[in-house]
Amino acid sequence: MTELSKVLRETSPGALSFWCPGCRDSNTIRHGSGPGPRWGWNGNTEHPTFTPSVLARTGHYVPGHENGSCWCTYYQEHPDEPRDFACGICHTFVTDGHIQYLSDCTHELAGQTVPMVAFPEDW
Questions:
Q1: Residue pair 7/46 in contact by the 8 Å Cβ criterion
Q2: Is 21's pLDDT higher than 90?
């Protein structure tokens, strides 16, 4: 993993990660040539712009996992476990170093726009 700036890391060739304060985790896009979905990137490591929108789904929000085991059912079955993970949707536009959270996000930043933040030191 290569730290490109305080807000952007290259986790593998063509894979860029940024810290999402809504998810409290990183979100990753792939750019350049290659298989699978690809995003445009303005090349700016301090104030990146990605196109189109970035959609991250976890747990039962992942297509095909709607009726399967997920973090929600795990925590219902294990109520004393620390809640380190969550099922959710994070849908954003990343423009000029700002994250615009769309209304379909399932976390508390839905509908807000915030500046990108640095990765936690322990990540």
A1: yes
A2: yes
